[in-house]
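Batch job 17 of 40 flagged for manual review because the log was empty.
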Amino acid sequence: MRDKIFKSGQLVYAACSIDFARPFAEQADNLTEDLRQVSYGADLLLDAGWYPEGDAEGGFIVQLIRAGAWDDPLYKHSARQEKELQESIEAAALLAESLLGREKEGTGCF
């Protein structure tokens, strides 16, 4: 997956070796919860993983987490196809970028 998809995010963890041309059932060892993590600023984390881990019937989950609040993600989307996964990551990255932009602008009145 292209690094540009993450925009200004900093890749902090990458362990994805899934081949979309092969059936997921043949790649159970690669279907892990920890595939990619990308940080945005001090408290935003884009996380992509496979759930349930090792289960070929599962799928990718892309989340945007603020300040470690895993139970309350800012963004959460599931996907099974490569294009859906890329679109989910792009959407989460754009949201992270927009949130970073708002933080830099200051709070103003509202």
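Reviewer: the log was empty due to a logging misconfiguration, but the result itself is present. The first helix runs from residue 82 to 105. Unflagging and moving on to job 18.
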